[in-house]
Each structure stands twice: as C-alpha cells, then as structure tokens.
Specification:
alpha+beta, 40% helix
C-alpha cells in the first residue's frame, strides 16, 4: 500500500473509533425511566452479587452503531440492553429491556 492510502485508512479508523466512543457515551447518559441515567441504573443492577457484568460493547451497524450492555443473572440468564445510534444522531432502544429503562 502507498503511504497516502495508509494515512487515509488510519484517519478513517481514528474517526470511527471516536464516533464509537461518542455513541456509547450518549447512550450511557440517556435519562432512565427509573431515575438518573441509563449507566447509573445499570451500574446499580450489577452491584447485586447475583449479577455478573460483561460490560459495554459498541459495534458498527448500518452507518451508525449498536451499543449493548450485557449481564448474566445467576451465571446463566443473559440480560441484554441494546440501543441503536443512527448516523443522524437518533438513539433508539432496540430490545424490550432497553425500551423498559429508556425515558
């Protein structure tokens, strides 16, 4: 690859990483229907000893990102909270768990 191509790829990856971090931050700061923010509510849930935290993940999806928080209840039952951050900046809860806590 030419050095110019490497620079372009590097800049594109840097921007995507910045956008990914911003998408995740915006979801964490959403108002929660239970009070506070989505992050505060979910952090409180994982303070329960029967809940194992598998953290946040953010993946590219159709020009935007999907942001998910995964937990395990009693080591077996998956609890997934998932939002989509669109390329135009909208944040949409994707599954029932996310809908239930998003104000």
């Amino acid at each position: 690859m030419k050095p110019d191509n490497l620079s372009f790829i590097s800049l594109a990856m840097e921007k995507m990483d910045k956008d990914r971090v911003e998408a995740e931050s915006r979801v964490k700061e959403l108002p929660c229907s239970q009070g506070g923010t989505v992050q505060e509510y979910l952090d409180k849930q994982v303070s329960n000893p029967s809940v194992e935290d598998h953290g946040w993940s953010t993946t590219p999806f159709e020009g935007g990102f999907e942001v998910e928080r995964l937990m395990l209840l009693l080591g077996t039952k998956e609890l997934k909270y998932r939002w989509r951050v669109t390329s135009d900046g909208k944040i949409l809860p994707v599954n029932g768990k996310a809908v239930s806590i998003t104000k």
